Amino acid sequence: MPIARRQPRDRAGLSDAAAPPDMSPLDQKLGFRLRLAQQTAFEAFHRLMSPLGLTPGRMGVLLLLEANPDIRQTALAEALRIKPSNLTVLLAALEAEGLLRRAEDAGNRRANLLRLTAAGRALLTRAKAAEAEVERQLTESLTPAERAALIAALARVAAG
Amino acid sequence: MPIARRQPRDRAGLSDAAAPPDMSPLDQKLGFRLRLAQQTAFEAFHRLMSPLGLTPGRMGVLLLLEANPDIRQTALAEALRIKPSNLTVLLAALEAEGLLRRAEDAGNRRANLLRLTAAGRALLTRAKAAEAEVERQLTESLTPAERAALIAALARVAAG
DNA sequence: CTCATTTGTTATGCGCCATAACGTTAAGCG
DNA sequence: CGCTTAACGTTATGGCGCATAACAAATGAG
């Protein structure tokens, strides 16, 4: 019987393998938690919406176009909180796919009036159902009241 | 009294200028609210931390290195929830700036043991103060209880 | 008409994330 | 022991979201 093994395998000394790292410096930071939650949200969105060829930005365009026919790009970019330069690229792709139309404003030839095509409306119908499932999965561990409080709190953070 | 101007300037017909777009399709969506809040958080972080040469990712490395000296890169990447391949780039820059040291593990020559340098610790001291101000600005419209509830809700969303 | 503004486009870069391919070192196993 | 598999890290590449700057075209004000 070996004398020397008084504490067999009980890790009394220095760890030699998997001591879990101390994450306490990060886990109460709002920025870190926002990043993780947004990453989860993006993954859920991608999982369910990429079969429809939609990213969050593209979906936002379609939704706001349905609610605001003949909107100008500047106004749409403002509503989406993105820069007009980035919207240009989004719109070019969506138009090339036949989901929307950019028509010149007769009264202001600088402006493009945006409108969904029939194909765009058809896609949006399917997309709304998929998007509802995304929201459901994301908030399935929250009560409706907690979900509402979360959204309200996020809105206040974003408002500054 | 002019007869013809029955409804002077009341926009009874088509709008000719700034009808505010209908954002209702987006404003209750968790994904959209997460994006806006995270964008605000990133802007606040950048405003106060970029003078110190820090991004969120770099700050996370420094914080976890202080709490976990001699951690391996794989464990650090897991704790930060980033991929080891992306951590490599972060660490190379931080090491080139003299903020941390990558020492070969004597008992496992594959692994790098990470440790802050004196310069890294000095920077981190200043960075913590600035980061506290970031958190303060972000949550200044929330009560402490609301802030805690927000972080808890975000953690549950991220947990799936 | 001239000049400043509005509207949209293009180009470029950063931060973060992911995957794939690779070299090196260590560990498992016959 | 030698072979195979796994762990650890690096490099390269691409996507997404965001930002700025420089630009062209059309409009409106003086």
From TrEMBL, chains A, B:
Signal peptide: none
Pfam families: MarR_2
InterPro entries the UniProt entry points to: HTH_MarR-typ
Record key words, sorted: DNA-binding, Transcription, Transcription regulation
Region (Disordered): 1-23
UniProt entry tagged with the keyword DNA-binding: yes
Protein name: MarR family transcriptional regulator
Organism: Falsiroseomonas oleicola
